[in-house]
Q: What sequence folds into this?
């Protein structure tokens, strides 16, 4: 069996302040970040991860958080130097960044360190919305961050935008999009705010637009972005031609990814028997660093069963506008296509998916009812 493409996810868990909607593994930064200790743990963890995938090149790297741009560029450079022998020349290397002034000043140094793609967490250009979201930047900083990315030599960058924000109107959402497209980002992530467990917003819900209003925002956004030449290649992702996020596409097409850092999740296929395992690192940074020192960085590991493989493949691949091919399903899961046929047959009957030769993808209706589509692949019992 051919192993699928391989990526690497690096998690740096600290932020200046935790946002009330955020359910990622992030922690308010201490007065002094433990940069040296955490970098040492990442590099040791990386050595173990590389040993688990001998001879395989890493096609993409995503350094997320938290706010990884709080770390000095020298630390990122050291980590990427360890990776260099395992990266092709054209590897995509993304760093998440916030629009704060301090991070902007480092963009050129991150570019020099080897990062070639930025993902900037704007979320909104509306000062009122930013306050409601607990963001610490303003509209002008968001605009300057995109301009600073271009000035630093980033020909590829993403802007993160959210919609259906607390008390947001359709007109306010459209204003956000106008600011965004005026900055001409090669990639836009545009996703709906949801209330996730273990967040401040979940325990103290703000007044959000109702479902009809949120749907109207989504439809209007699609018209605006398509009109400005962006392709809607994934449920929440829009891109100029050739600027799709390769790292995320590898997730959605059920590729493999190594994981280092507190709370990071990984997925790895055994090329000998085709088995797939998922694993996770400890979430608390101090605990993670201690477990790496002890030589036991993984706190959870599990092998995916047949039903898990079908469901998890569909949860990812059906998010893509161009879907997947039958050979890809068989290669990435190690299963015959008939394992997916019962669920896909029902989805076809409902008009939720369509098949053209060996390619299968969701229809416009199917993307509206994606959760219902995925329920067709839940294990019985």
A:
């Amino acid at each position: 069996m051919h192993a699928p493409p391989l990526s690497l996810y690096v998690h740096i868990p600290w932020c200046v302040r935790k946002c009330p909607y955020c359910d990622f593994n992030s922690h308010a930064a201490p007065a002094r970040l433990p940069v040296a200790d955490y970098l040492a743990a990442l590099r040791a963890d990386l050595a173990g991860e590389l040993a688990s995938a001998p001879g395989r090149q890493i096609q993409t790297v995503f350094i997320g958080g938290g706010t990884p741009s709080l770390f000095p560029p020298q630390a990122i450079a050291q980590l990427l130097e360890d990776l260099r022998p395992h990266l092709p020349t054209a590897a995509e290397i993304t760093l998440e960044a916030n629009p704060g002034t301090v991070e902007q000043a480092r963009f050129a140094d991150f570019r020099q360190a080897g990062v070639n793609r930025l993902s900037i967490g704007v979320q909104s250009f509306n000062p009122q919305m930013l306050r409601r979201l607990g963001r610490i930047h303003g509209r002008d900083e968001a605009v300057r961050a995109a301009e600073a990315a271009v000035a630093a030599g980033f020909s590829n960058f993403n802007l993160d935008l959210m919609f259906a924000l607390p008390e947001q109107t359709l007109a306010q959402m459209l204003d956000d999009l106008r600011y965004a497209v005026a900055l001409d980002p090669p990639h836009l992530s545009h996703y709906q705010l949801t209330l996730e467990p273990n967040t401040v917003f979940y325990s103290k819900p703000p007044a959000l637009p109702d479902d009809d209003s949120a749907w109207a925002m989504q439809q209007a956004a699609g018209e605006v972005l398509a009109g400005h030449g962006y392709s809607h290649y994934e449920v929440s992702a829009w891109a100029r031609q050739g600027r799709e996020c390769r790292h995320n596409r590898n997730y959605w097409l059920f590729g493999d990814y190594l994981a280092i850092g507190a709370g990071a999740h990984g997925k790895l296929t055994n090329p000998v028997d085709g088995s797939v395992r998922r694993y996770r690192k400890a979430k608390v940074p101090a605990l993670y660093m201690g477990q790496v020192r002890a030589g036991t960085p993984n706190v959870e590991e599990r092998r995916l069963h047949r039903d898990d493989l079908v469901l998890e493949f569909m949860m990812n691949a059906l998010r893509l506008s161009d879907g997947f091919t039958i050979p890809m399903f068989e290669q990435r899961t190690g299963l015959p296509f008939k394992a997916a046929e019962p669920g896909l047959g029902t989805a076809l009957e409902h008009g939720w998916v369509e098949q053209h030769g060996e390619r299968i993808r969701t229809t416009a209706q199917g993307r509206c009812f994606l959760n219902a589509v995925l329920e067709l692949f839940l294990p019985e019992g």
Remarks:
- The mean pLDDT is 94.
